[in-house]
Amino acid sequence: xxxxxxxLISSVVFIMSAGASxxxxxxxxxxxxxxxxxxxxxxxxxxxxxxSKFSYAHRLCLSLARQGMRDAQLVTGLMYAFxxxxxxxxxxxELWLNEAARNGSMxxxxxxxxxxxxxxxxx
Length: 123
Prior knowledge:
Layout: H1 2-17, E1 24-25, E2 32-33, H2 39-50, H3 54-66, H4 70-82, H5 90-102, H6 106-122
Helix pairs in contact: 1-2, 2-3, 3-4, 4-5, 5-6
């Protein structure tokens, strides 16, 4: 699980460094791209997460996740899943990871599968 998390974080940072500054938003229509007023905010969110500044990352990323930023939704879900920067909350973790997955995040889909497989093994 830790190796998977490191891979997910690396993937998100790589996406941001490649200049991916748009994320899908939730609508009933086909997925559309959100207009990001300040792509530097999303980069700051991800950098704070990678730098283990989780409380700061949570504040930044949660706000961006609510605006439909796919990578911020992924990171927010991960922080709730592992209790980093916020209290551990499986319900919110699943909500944000599902939202990121719905918006096209393959990393979120993989993480959801891992969480569900882990839950089944623990029962």
